[in-house]
Amino acid sequence: MSTAKNDLLKQEEPLVSMNNVSPKIKIYPAYFMQKIPDTAKDLFLREGVAEKIIHIAKQLPSGIFFVLIDGWRSFETQRYIYERAIRQFRSLGYSEEKIKEIIVGFVAYPSKDPLKPAPHYTGAAIDLTLSNDQNWIEMGTGFDDFTERAHSDYFEGRTDLTDMELLARDHRRFLRGKMEEAGFTQNPTEWWHYSYGDRSWGKENNADPFYGGIEISK
């Protein structure tokens, strides 16, 4: 089968639920809990991406789990999050010019353009972290942190780290190692965001993306 046909088949992959797919995977639908429009209590990923996440989870040490925070997003959800981020940056005193410069590193522009879909609109991007039996483990910041501390390499190359920061650095390294070993790429400004097969993945790997935007069947 040709590469073009393979890519077409991948684009036709369905979105699948990640609820109860593995004892090593927990679901925390952050945006549903925040009551953001058009969100669901469930979490969905492209079938091929879901299979990769399940496989990685099986390899996690005893007592360590994946916590999936966000996967596929509707266009309406993406638009709401994008507009909310702009308001947050304004409240921090950023100029409109500065906001346009930095927002691309944190929230993608909501688009239904098949050539330029937002990563989460493809179902090929995943926001996740790690937990033990009781709590999420230390990662240095919370989810959706818009500061430099959220950058994936923030703790790298620093010699004055506290014990907690050293722990966060090591946890980020562990998560990144597992995800990249499976073929995922990471958003450099968000330690929690990984993707496989979308535009950002394609850019990083000098390859054509094979997942475009998709709507969930209702």
Give the structure's gist in a few sentences.
It is globular, with a radius of gyration of 17 Å.
Describe the structure.
This protein has helices at 3-11, 30-33, 47-58, 75-91, 96-102, 163-181, 199-205; strands at residues 15-17, 25-27, 44-46, 65-70, 125-131, 185-186, 193-195. With 218 residues, the chain is of the alpha+beta class. The protein has one domain: Muramoyl-pentapeptide Carboxypeptidase, domain 2 (2-Layer Sandwich). The two termini are 32 Å apart. Residues 1-5 have low confidence and may be disordered.
User: Based on DSSP secondary structure assignment, what is the total number of beta strands?
Assistant: 7
Q: Helical residue percent?
A: 25-40%
Helix run count? 7
User: Strand pairing plus helix content: what structural class?
Assistant: alpha+beta
Number of domains: 1
> What general form does the structure show?
globular
- Spatial strand sequence of the major β-sheet: 2-4-5-7-6
Radius of gyration: 17 Å
Q: What letter string, H or E per element, gives the SSE order?
A: HEEHEHEHHEHEEH
Largest sheet: 5 strands, mixed
**Residue ranges: pLDDT <50 for 5 or more in a row?**
1-5
